[in-house]
Amino acid sequence: MYEAILIAGFGGQGVLSTGQLLAYAGMLEGKHVSWIPSYGPEMRGGTANCGVTISDSPISSPVVTEPTSLIVMNRPSLEKFEGNVVPGGLILINSSLVDIKATRKDVRVYYIPANELAEELGNARVAGNVILGALLELTRAVSLDAVEKSLREVLPAHRHKLIPLNRQALETGAALVRRPATAQAG
Amino acid sequence: MAKILMKGNEAIGEGAVRAGCRYFFGYPITPQSELPHYLAKRLPEVGGVYLQSESETGAINMVYGAAGAGARVMTSSSGPGISLMQEGISYLAGAELPCVIVNMIRGGPGLGNIAPAQSDYFQATKGGGHGDYRVIVLAPASVQEIIDLMRVAFDLADRYRNPVMVAGDGILGQMMEPVELGEEEEIQIPPRPWAATGRMGGEKKLINSLYIVPEELEQHNLKLARKYALITEREQRWEEYRLGGAKLVLVAFGTAARICKAVVDRCREEGLAVGLIRPITLWPFPQKAFEPVIEEAERFLVVEMNLGQMVEDVRLTVNGRRPVHFYGRCGGMLPVAADVVREVKKLYGGEGQ
User: Fold this and answer.
1) Do B176 and A66 touch (CB under 8 A)?
2) Chain A residues near residue B265 by CB distance under 8 angstroms
3) B228 and B264, same structural domain?
4) What is the ipTM of this complex?
5) What would the pLDDT profile of A111-169 be if each residue is shown by its tens digit?
6) CATH code of residue A33
7) Would you say residue A186 lies in a domain?
8) What is the pLDDT of residues B288-341, one digit of tens each?
9) Residue A65: which residues within 8 A CB-CB, separation 6 or more?
10) Domain total of chain A
11) Cβ of A158 under 8 Å from any chain B Cβ?
């Protein structure tokens, strides 16, 4: 198993923390992981991205230049990174915020209205976990249980009441891609 | 013991604390600011002192003072800040004071940018300040190795009474990897009979790099040279990666070496006999790593995040016996594994000369 996942979007969307959560979950499952952020002169509202590698064997390079999976949370990220995904790879697009389609024909593309689904759950801030749930359903990079366990370990106790909502967000994303007709597989 | 996920910059701080460092003086600069940030919280917990100086020049001279008083002490910065420290580093080397200096290298020259680079190799290994001196330079390539090498850094500084530089880059500082911290050990700092801790009726202890009489400075220089020769003989460190039977040997350190490991893996999958030498000590340069492979190796390819600095040391080592090629990206750009693979294929088997 080798997954090099690039997560990209606006600063403030939780792109970096979603990546950290994924890496943490991989570590809890005993896999080799690395997390690497873009760290330019970035700010809220600017672009941000991070690369997460999860592998059964030691990770030679932590730098994700040719992702096996790409999560795009905004339009500039799709335009910038679509071309980098390996052939046969996966692109997950937050269709709540991205109003264009992917042009690649040699990768699997899923459109996920992550913000709308998160709002239906009652909190727009779990959009990242909706799309993460979809990624995990499609790649099996780590289990949803490991993500939930990671939340329990990284969140301070007074935030633990948010864990069920996050779990629900992950499951909503996973369920969506289990029924590809509704996720507009491309 | 369970692993924890840690940022490289934080690992430098934790590694230093676990190595017995109790004093840090520094001034913030991207991409290493998480390190002083971490130590500002951590050092007071263990009875240490964190102090943000008024400038890098101030920081390195505080290091001189603390080291002179016998402390395990560290500073850190990046490119422009390290340039400001060069006078102090020369004085530390001249006065033979043990200390650790961290440089998380960014793009230069001048203000350059805050992206990862390896363009301070010359400055680190050839003596960035004035005078005939050497600084031991360690180049970790993973967060776990940072933890392990911080202990080595402080021990080497003490063993040889010499400044030790830990040279990383922005990527290494910013990335997170799982680390095993192990049990926290009680560190016994070796006795420092030379430290300026008060005369107490004994001999005068003067810590100085001034030798105004040329005959005396020559003797001091020769003494330092003997020390540097001993370090060169004893302390070369490197990692070998899939070197068996390699016809083309990549040479890279730090983040560039991580990328080159991926290059080696891809080449080996395609049946190309490619391996990697990863220098861990940049000074002393691990010349010993090259002798066992030079028989079988037909050529070397040095990959750096600069315009070609370590390649000069590889050429000195190989000394004309084999061709030594170079591939680099600079200005804060990273080599892309696919591009390096292409370069390897161009050279492999002697084409593309």
Assistant:
1) no
2) 60
3) no
4) 0.92
5) 999 999 999 999 999 999 999 999 999 999 999 999 999 999 989 999 999 999 999 99
6) 3.40.920.10
7) no
8) 999 999 999 999 999 999 999 999 999 999 999 999 999 999 999 999 999 999
9) A84, B334, B336, B337, B338
10) 1
11) no
